[in-house]
Amino acid sequence: MSVGHGGSGTVAPSPAAVSAPAPAPEPWPVRRLFPLLATVALLVIGMVGTIVVGPHLMGRTAWSLPDDLWGTLVAAQRLAHLDLAGLYTQPTGLVTFPGAAVILVPTAAVADAAGLSLQHPGPHNQQPAVWLVAGPYMTALSAVALFAADALAERLRLSRPKRAFLAVASGTALWNVSVQWGHPEDAVAVALLLFAVLALSEARTARAAWLAGAAIAVQPLVLLALPVLLAVIEPRRIAGFLAKAAVPSAVLLGAAAAANWQATYQAVTRQPNWPAVDHPTPWLPLAPHLARGAVAGGPARALAILVACGCALIVGRRLREARRARSWSRATLEELLWWTAVALALRCVFEPVMVAYYLWPGLALALIVAASEWQRLIWAFVFATAVTFGSQSGWRSTWGWWGCMILGLALTLLCARAPLRRPSPRPAAQCAPHPP
User: Fold this and answer.
1) What is the DSSP string of 151-194?
2) pLDDT for 227-243, tens place per residue?
3) d(Cα 83, Cα 30) in Å, to the nearest integer?
4) End-to-end alpha carbon distance in the chain
5) What angle do CA 297, 300, 306 make, to 5 degrees?
6) How far apart are CA 140 and CA 73, in angstroms?
7) Residues 6+ away with beta carbon under 8 Å from 154
């Protein structure tokens, strides 16, 4: 699948340097005003929604809290106590890399110091006090993705009104993965990946490698984007890039495996999911079945990585000039972001069991690409919002729910990249140099 930009099949090579001197950078709070405001809004809406509005609408006294967060908090608490052997044992339910627990260690430490229980919410724990600490921290942590998106928008020379709208659109989509489901690791991993793309666009390959490695250590879903990133790196630098990117995951997984090999190996390789709880897809019959009604998601994700490698071959041909350019053109950066969005979206295409927040990474990157034109941004926002909230439906049709979500995701990606009107001839725009 290849969608051109501006009616051209290839991307024009960027000039070697920007002729005009870069303007003096604004103070950080001014430069990042829009993601800051979006973070505050998301935090307020999230806390009020979970503590006041949600319980009122459902007619109950229990707070409406994300179920998936609590097991990861227990894993973070064990990590803070240096209990590496218990990282992948119940009740953590951890199936991702240890970085997901690492980023929650501050919350676990505060909870320990304050004597707050990490017991899962239920009939005997309807209003857990630890949520007053974990909720704001998790939301603010997830919002790193908003700042990464704004940094890329700034590099693409987008106007302030477009950046403001992008912050609103990105914050709306982020609600799904943070407040609704409690998976800040997905948001942090995608944010680190976006900063890695930004570093690559400035020919800072070593920095990009460390950022990509940190992203993988937090949530290995970004492995889908790794082949696309490698396609725009000079071949002589690929080995060094991969070596640096492997270090964070190797250190964390190695420590966990040394402490408890069996639990670590089973959790990371099988990655169980439960079709009776989440949304089964047409791929379910092909997934290996595990105990207690679970199925293994690992093999399907390996297939998604294989298809992502096919995307990387296309990117390598289209963006071969990016390997040598010291500063990418705007079109080059937009195209790489779009193909990265496609790669991340492949998880949803091949997953045997889907959860609503799986859709977010592809939507988040598509919105950044769409922000270059108002028409595309508005339509992408409409589709992304429909997918974000429509995915919360309890509809369990194997083809129906999955088909609607994939269609909405595809339409969002299409709106982000396909020209909605005939473009007027113009020279290739250069990315803004990143302020020091």
Assistant:
1) HHHHHTT--HHHHHHHHHHHHHHHHIIIIIT--HHHHHHHHHHH
2) 999 999 999 999 999 99
3) 42
4) 37
5) 140
6) 16
7) 31, 163, 432
